[in-house]
Amino acid sequence: MKKIRLFTALFAVLATIVNAQSNFGKDYFCLGEYQTAKKYFEKQVSQSPAESNYYLGEIAFAEGKKDEAKAYYEKGIAADPLFMLNYIGQGKLQLKTDQKAAETIFATALKKNKKNVELNIAIARAYYECGMKDIATAKIEMARKFGKKSPLIYTLEGDILAAEDKSGEAAGKYEQAIYFDPNYTVASIKCAEVYESINPNLSVEMLNKVIAAHPDYTIAYRGLGNSYSKKGMYQSAIEAYTSFFAEKTYNVEDIIGFASAYFFTDQFEKSITLVDEGLALDSTNFVLNRFRMYNASKVNDHVNGLNYANYFFTLKSEKGFIPLDYMAYAIILSNAGDYNKALELFNKMLESDPNKADVYKELYTVYSKMGESGKAAASYKKYMDLMGADYVGVLDYYQLGRAYYSAASSLANDSTEAGKTQFKEYIAKADSAFTSVCNLTPESYTGYLWRGHTNALLDPETTLGLAKPHYEAAANAILNKAKENNGVGGNQKDLITCYQYLGYYYYLKEDKENSTKYWNMVLELDPKNANAKAVMDEYSRPAKKK
Q: Does residue 221 lie within any of the structural domains?
């Protein structure tokens, strides 16, 4: 799971100590958004110097800048010696080098505030951040004695568990914090963040409650975007990310989330824009470079695709490369015309997993580009078989039919026995696929039209009229649709094809009446049609033996 950064969520401390109201700076700080929080506190330092310098010191400490942190704590003490958190910050700086001195500072801070839960939790967190978990745990128990209903206790416990990848237990602690204080928004957001991976539905529910109560909590939209993405609801994720990004408080990780949502909704140009913005901030980011390559494979970027891919594979990641990386690279190679290398990659992927349906779909594309129509058809058939009947639709059957039709066309003039046999097999398979199109969409003309084309290929002289019933069915479907749309519309060209075949069929049968009918229909749609004019000219001349 994504680790929740542990650095302090102590905005309620100040609410108790100095009766100050929570603000976005504290909230962003408690959620680990240090750079955004820093901007808020730098703006507020003149109005609340003790508080702002404390948080600026905590941010510097989190970034490993101890001298800078020390300077901020000193400024905070100078501004208000009674603001005890700055003393705790000073003590934390000494915990690893002089524990006794640090504990003296803590004791001084607690002298008049012994039962103050917030200060006790601040000390407990200081020990934990310095690697002293056992003492931190003891300090948490001390704080519990003074206020067992304080949400700060359970939030710190949740943070510790989250850092140990104990998601379920962490969520339980955050839920306790929310139970004792339903308005403790930070605990709600942290809890939702934990649930992003283990229960995105609950995460969405929690974040929507936060937004309903606090519409200006734009940071909640980031979590909402992440959770929607986990659910595969990418369009909803995009809407949430859009609201979050409007405040311009996002970081590189947020850019990755937003860009991936655009990628998975096929909005590749928008994804590229975001990825490029992220790469300008972190040019070696592994995931950003991955998505740059993925996008290049989708938009057929001949110019830069190979450069993106070659660079990506020089990068290192703890998790290493995944099959989709090689898939994108192979697609880019195919787009660049390096078909043999693309095939080599695809086949290697099948060696490790022979049931990867998507690979066969890509093989279909490569073989089609290579003019290997038989292999293309076989690849698409394998893709459909692996996907299963429940996951293939009419477009797949249409694509398969077209593939077999192309394969048959390539053998139409093959006079060898093997070629003739293979030709008939491809014709039968194409016709079967287009029959499935007809069965799935009986109101559409497409399946009938292509059954006509396929059977016409089998009967090139039109002596058997194999295509006749299919072109008739296609023409009727087109006309029925035209009635609904008050015109033929974009199907006029296909309707002419049907009428020409039927006119020619009846011409060969010496059925002048029906032949004339169909050729006149052609002329109504295309007055300059040369075939129709030739036949009608012949019919207009005195009868003679053809």
A: no
